[in-house]
Amino acid sequence: MIIFGFRSFVKQLAMLMFVCSRCHNPAAHRVLQVTRMFTLFFIPLFPVSRSRHMTCTFCGAGTRLTKAQTDQMIAGAGEPSAVQPAAQAAQLPPAPPTAPPA
After folding, report:
1. pTM
2. How many Å apart are CA 73 and CA 64, to the nearest integer?
3. pLDDT in tens, 47-57
4. Phi then psi for 60, rounded to 5 degrees?
């Protein structure tokens, strides 16, 4: 008897700050790569498919990405100009000072 099948491996490529297109909240987004492998006797032999996804950590909305989009987002994450708009949206006004308890 030959036992064969498929298994998926998930690898986190980056964690980036964006304003979510679904919930409109500035939140961290996980950029994941899912590789589906062919297995023989539970040993992964070769990749069958590979896909990339971006998931909002606030609402859980997912978006499928191409390799070019993924590479562009990860390369742009190191530049301050690319991260700054999302970071500015995430800033809240300072809280008013509170009086010490009496």
Report:
1. 0.67
2. 13
3. 999 999 999 99
4. 85, 5
